């Protein structure tokens, strides 16, 4: 799994940036706060999360581990996907969001893009462990997991195929033809995927 990317800022768009490293440009979707801190041609380190769908591989990025951690927690809440989570990070600072969770501030949460009252209430219930009695939990990055944790074999395999130049449609097609079991490693999956690709010619 791609934990982070270090490289040169090549392009800054309305909701994404291209970061070039070793001749490869990565399109990374980012919140407006982080985009506003980026400068063309500067060197950056972007923590990344790869969202895998049947028809797309989308890379989301963050300039801090705190923002990355909050994003990964947000997308575990029912009804909140990566786009909504990035919208929340665009509209709110991490500390302000955590304070709203701690204070059970439904009014604050419902002002965030894509968040209605029911979703806000689910957030308060499912994210209540993000803050202790004195604020963010201290044990690791404000209670968040750092992005260096183990990736799934499936995600690693899909990233490896993408790095070899296969398109998203080709990758989705071949992965759908492989029977994936819990004991398979990324190396096992990659070998099978390449075998299928070779047979397809």
Automatic annotation (TrEMBL):
Which SMART domains does the record match to this protein? HhH1 (SM00278)
GO BP terms, alphabetized: DNA recombination; DNA repair
> One GO molecular-function annotation for this sequence?
four-way junction DNA binding
Which keywords, in A-to-Z order, does the entry hold? ATP-binding, Cytoplasm, DNA damage, DNA recombination, DNA repair, DNA-binding, Helicase, Hydrolase, Nucleotide-binding
**Where is region (Domain III) located?**
151-201
- Residues forming the Helix-hairpin-helix DNA-binding motif class domain are 72-91, 107-126
Q: What subcellular compartments does it reside in?
A: Cytoplasm
Show the Pfam families listed in the entry. HHH_5, RuvA_C, RuvA_N
Query: What cellular-component terms does GO give this entry?
Result: cytoplasm; Holliday junction helicase complex; Holliday junction resolvase complex
UniProt keyword annotation of DNA-binding present: yes
Q: What is its main location?
A: cytoplasm
CDD domains in the cross-refs: UBA_RuvA_C
| Gene3D superfamilies found in the cross-reference section | 5' to 3' exonuclease, C-terminal subdomain, DNA helicase RuvA subunit, C-terminal domain, Nucleic acid-binding proteins
Q: Which NCBIfam families match?
A: ruvA (TIGR00084)
Q: Give the similarity note.
A: Belongs to the RuvA family.
Q: How does it assemble?
A: Homotetramer. Forms an RuvA(8)-RuvB(12)-Holliday junction (HJ) complex. HJ DNA is sandwiched between 2 RuvA tetramers; dsDNA enters through RuvA and exits via RuvB. An RuvB hexamer assembles on each DNA strand where it exits the tetramer. Each RuvB hexamer is contacted by two RuvA subunits (via domain III) on 2 adjacent RuvB subunits; this complex drives branch migration. In the full resolvosome a probable DNA-RuvA(4)-RuvB(12)-RuvC(2) complex forms which resolves the HJ.
Summary of the function given for this chain in its UniProt record: The RuvA-RuvB-RuvC complex processes Holliday junction (HJ) DNA during genetic recombination and DNA repair, while the RuvA-RuvB complex plays an important role in the rescue of blocked DNA replication forks via replication fork reversal (RFR). RuvA specifically binds to HJ cruciform DNA, conferring on it an open structure. The RuvB hexamer acts as an ATP-dependent pump, pulling dsDNA into and through the RuvAB complex. HJ branch migration allows RuvC to scan DNA until it finds its consensus sequence, where it cleaves and resolves the cruciform DNA.
Its domain description in UniProt is:
Has three domains with a flexible linker between the domains II and III and assumes an 'L' shape. Domain III is highly mobile and contacts RuvB.
Name the chain's protein. Answer: Holliday junction branch migration complex subunit RuvA
């Amino acid at each position: 799994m791609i934990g982070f990317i270090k490289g040169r800022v090549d392009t800054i768009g309305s909701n994404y940036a291209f970061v070039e490293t070793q001749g490869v440009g990565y399109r990374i979707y980012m919140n407006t706060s982080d985009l506003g801190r980026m400068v063309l041609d500067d060197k950056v380190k972007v923590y990344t999360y790869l969202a895998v769908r049947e028809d797309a591989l989308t890379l989301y990025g963050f300039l801090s581990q705190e923002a990355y951690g909050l994003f990964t927690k947000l997308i575990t809440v029912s009804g909140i996907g990566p786009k909504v989570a990035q919208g929340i990070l665009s509209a709110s600072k991490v500390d302000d969001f955590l304070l709203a969770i701690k204070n059970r501030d439904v009014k604050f949460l419902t002002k965030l893009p894509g968040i209605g009252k029911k979703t806000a209430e689910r957030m308060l219930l499912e994210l209540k462990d993000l803050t202790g009695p004195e604020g963010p939990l201290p044990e690791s990055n404000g209670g968040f997991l750092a992005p260096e944790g183990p990736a799934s074999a499936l995600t690693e395999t899909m990233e490896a195929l993408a790095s070899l130049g296969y398109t998203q449609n080709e990758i989705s097609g071949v992965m759908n033809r492989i029977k994936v079991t819990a004991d398979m490693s990324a190396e096992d999956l990659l070998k099978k995927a390449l075998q299928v690709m070779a047979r397809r010619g």
